[in-house]
Amino acid sequence: MSRTTMRAPKPDWTDPDCPVARTLDLVGDRWSLLVIRDAMDGARSFTEFQRRTGIARNILTERLRKLTAYGLLAQRTAPSGRRQEYVLTDAGRDLFSVILTLRQWGERHAFAPGEAHSTLVDEHGTPVPEIVPTSADGTPLDTATTHVQKTR
Asked: I need a surface site. Which of 36, 48, 105, 116 has the fewest CB within 10 A?
């Protein structure tokens, strides 16, 4: 998320210089990521989010408020004109690879071998291939081939 898309400043960053910590401050609780996940899967209304997640109304109200304030979701009038709905912003859509990576990690590590789970497929019904970070020359990257470089 760029600084220009975040609408509400957060003066109490956990670690002001770390992009991972800042991201977790914004979306690091399970309910926020599940709301984003469901928005990516077509949920738009408060009722849909509540039905899909089972989240308590007061918690969902707070998460939707927070995600909207931080510019990850936007509110608009539903096509029926009778209620408001929530839609992903560009910053919210940019979390797709994060959600996908969490999903793929979960497929590998959160299920017993052979245990049934949902699968993300593309528009043709083909399972989405595993994401593997690569360098500019195509070499796979991992913790042994990367390091954090401070900018200050």
From this structure: 116
